[in-house]
Amino acid sequence: MAQRLQRNRRREDSDDDQGEEEKQQPPNQLELIEQQLNDPDAKLTKKEIQKLQKKHEKEKMKDAMKQQREAEQQRRLEQEHKEEEIENKRKFEEELKLEEERKKKEEEEKKEQEEYNKWKEMFAVEEAGTNEEEGEEYENKLQQFIEFIEIRKVVLFEDLAAEFSLSTKDIIDRIQRLMETGRISGITDDRGKFIHITQQEFDAVARYIKIKGRVSKSDLQTECNRLVRMQPRAEDRAKIQQEQKNLLEKVEKQFIKEEEVKA
């Protein structure tokens, strides 16, 4: 508070000094000519008056040009000051944006690492290996999990639990995290099923609602059944059959091996 009063006092003293300087300044050439022309005691001839009038006009033009130059200089300084403020604001906002992007990237990397650790705990790695090998094992198993859902479109949680040797709760948690990270999309129902819905199918339903406006529940259900594929495609059915065949062959080989050991 004391510093502010001191600054104000200095500013007032400066203004007073400036006012005193203006009072002490001698009259300029234009003012001198005007004084001569307006002096009732001056005994000027007609020729002298004309000469002074011409000089007065000339000085008046010079004064006007000087004021114009000063005004232009003032405008230029104000424009430079304004541009400097804009540039400083732009730099500040750019630095702020870069800082936000850096923090966001760090948070995403941290989240990805935490996600990886969670998945790694869920998937039991049968053989110990390097971190790189474990990472590849994790990604392969995760991709198998995603493809298992995508090609079937509709899966029971208990079927997923049996397929990947996990509890139903772990399956639900895993699907939820995959949806949060955008690796898979769909909906769950209260009967223990997950329905895989592609982003294109979501967009198609959204476009229908946007075009129709108010839509009844029955109309929306009918349109969803038309727009959202609920059964595997022909090529996906072939993959499922091949998976079942490979699983059966694996079981048969294991059975034969056990019988040979017993014999």
From TrEMBL:
InterPro entries: DDRGK_dom-contain, DDRGK_domain-containing, WH-like_DNA-bd_sf, WH_DNA-bd_sf
Taxonomy, superkingdom: Eukaryota
UniProt topology in membrane: Single-pass membrane protein
SMART domains, per the entry: DDRGK
Major subcellular location class: endoplasmic reticulum
Subcellular location: Endoplasmic reticulum membrane
Region (Disordered): 1-93
Record-level GO cellular component terms: endoplasmic reticulum membrane
Molecular function GO terms recorded: ubiquitin-like protein ligase binding
Keyword annotations from UniProtKB, A to Z: Endoplasmic reticulum, Membrane, Transmembrane, Transmembrane helix, Ubl conjugation pathway
Name of the protein in its database record: DDRGK domain-containing protein 1
Bias (Basic and acidic residues) ranges: 40-93
Family, as annotated: Belongs to the DDRGK1 family.
